[in-house]
Amino acid sequence: MVSDTAGATSVVEPRAPQRWPGARSRPPRLDRPPRRTWRQALARDWRLYSFLVLPLVFFAVFRYLPILGNVVAFRRFRPGSSIFGDEWVGLYYVRMFIQDPAFWSAFWNTVVLGGLTLVVVFPLPVVLALMLNELRSRRFKRAVQTISYLPHFMSVVIVAGMVFQLTAAKGTVNQVITSLGGTAVAFFQDPDWFRPIYLTSEVWQTVGWGTILYLAALTTIDEQLYEAARIDGANRWRQTWHITLPGIRPTMIVLLILNIGSFMAVGFEKVLLLQNPVIYSTADVISTYLYRVGIVSNSVSYATAIGLFEALIGLTLILSANAISKRTVGASLW
Amino acid sequence: MVSDVTTRKVDLGRPRARVPRGVRPRDGAGYTAFRVANAALLLVMCALVLYPFVNIVAQAFSSEGYINSGQVNLVPRGFNLTTFQVVMSDDMFWVNYKNTVVYTVVGTAIAMALTTTYAYALSKKHLKGRTFFIGVAVLTMFFNGGLVPNYVLINTLGFKDTIWAIVLPNAISVFNLLVMKSFFENFPDELEEAAAIDGMSTYGIFFRIVIPLSKAVLATMVLFYAVAFWNSWFSAYLYMTDPHNYPVTVYLRNLMAGVTSGTTVAGGSLDNTTQIASNVQSVTMLLTVLPIVCLYPFIQRYFVSGVMLGAVKQ
């Protein structure tokens, strides 16, 4: 088949770039294939390009169109208008949310909850990974890993259901409290309890799975470093402090940057499932607030303006965290 | 080795076995005490991780009187199966359970088709525009349109109350895409070259050489997507108005919302009319997680190796 040769060359050619027509007159560049025009590339690799079509349509429609759709933050949107809205209104909606006390309440709740998540949940996988690393029995270690990864695979609905069940009026937590002589707590009637409950469920669900990358990093540490340290008389604690922790530092920094980037997007689905109007004063975060405003109450432009603001904060955070880490410790995402 | 990627044992421990006996100094009493405490602490942690599951099972088999008086923790009290009968006799539960299966199967199939082809094309280093096509995907990890623009888009497309609202917007996970891309990049060129010399086209090579030799990584990706679709609830909650279209996660969510706000559940047709009993909730949770918990011990290592594959190459 004639057309097949095009496909065939696409696989064979890159190894022998100097045979490509047009490159023949120039000295052969072995380090990289010669430049081709789009016409040549399409003629040669059209089958590969055909693989790209549907995914590119997917990205255009379901990823980039909604990004462009953010212009409705600056345009009026009426039911039935296109996804880009009707007419320009400038910063009308931005001014609106800046003056909205409910937004600022949600904003500070997000900052507190995101900050607590970062401080409490982020370091725990490192601790757990180090603890696992001290185990000598392979079988015990594997069993602990298997058990601690399990919550990661639970739907957030299941996690919320477990939380409700354990914190119910006669649930396990209240049984423990009353057996210790305390009085039962109505956990979901009291705004003060929301953050501890959220953080506990976050720890339960994410800490085990979070160890994977650290455990992988631990295996790359050169065993000779430990031997040298032992010969120099370092005890286990010093070995951990001077060899193990520096060894997993790059992983920690990359994960820290990523976590800072998702700081504002605190577990939206979980918060939405756990919150109720009685505890909005601590449990309402930006994403749940804009869900109620934009989708339940249909103020599309207003909610989009808030969402855009949130996204810009997230982007600023990740870019600055990356820049700081690049300058200070030389590690960065890209 | 190609098919070896996921079958290789992912050993995450420091290779202690290689240290000769004589080199390791004898542990001091302090370190021995530490090791005992460490192991004990890990055991306690495992117990805490497992406790909520045990509690669900115990409540699912208990009678309501014992639950409401706070006597059910580790073991069922007043053992009975009536709650199971109540839940399983609800037609809506089965309709929704079937929906979850359908959404998972269709969603995973579409996601695999799009992810595999895109990743394969991107893995070819000579492809003109490759950097751009990678950038198109990676950029969406850092920017996304946000909840409301997405919602408006899906409504405009007329996807509301159709399966497409659930399966299409989540068809490609960029993380999975990058894992597959790096896998295909490590695929030995010689095999594909030999097939090309034999006159196979790119399509032939892809479907008859690459796919059959990538079964392990494809299985990992299928698991990643299937678990994500099985667990998802929010798209359905957002876009489905007819209870007949809910997946079981939304069924469960509505059950819980009924419990916590003290009202009767919307869309449920259960016998007890006043309040959805907590043991009904436990049984529904149990039946929802059952497939995942049963498969979990067998598939866990595939997930771990998938994450490692993605992490090592990036």
UniProtKB/TrEMBL annotation, chain A:
Coiled coil: none annotated. GO terms for cellular component: plasma membrane. Keywords: Cell membrane, Membrane, Transmembrane, Transmembrane helix, Transport. Residues 107-321 form the ABC transmembrane type-1 domain. It holds the Pfam family BPD_transp_1. SUPFAM superfamilies: MetI-like. It is found in: Cell membrane. Residues 1-33 are annotated as: Disordered. It is a multi-pass membrane protein. GO terms for biological process: transmembrane transport. The chain crosses the membrane at residues 46-65, 106-132, 248-268, 300-324. Belongs to the binding-protein-dependent transport system permease family. This is Sugar ABC transporter permease. It comes from Cellulomonas uda.
Automatic annotation (TrEMBL), chain B:
It is found in: Cell membrane. Residues 97-296 form the ABC transmembrane type-1 domain. Keywords: Cell membrane, Membrane, Transmembrane, Transmembrane helix, Transport. InterPro entries: MetI-like, MetI-like_sf. The chain crosses the membrane at residues 33-54, 101-120, 132-151, 163-184, 205-230, 250-270, 282-299. Coiled coil: none annotated. It is a multi-pass membrane protein. The keyword Coiled coil does not apply. It holds the Pfam family BPD_transp_1. The keyword Ligase does not apply. GO terms for cellular component: plasma membrane. One of its GO terms (biological process) is transmembrane transport. Belongs to the binding-protein-dependent transport system permease family. This is Sugar ABC transporter permease. It comes from Cellulomonas uda.
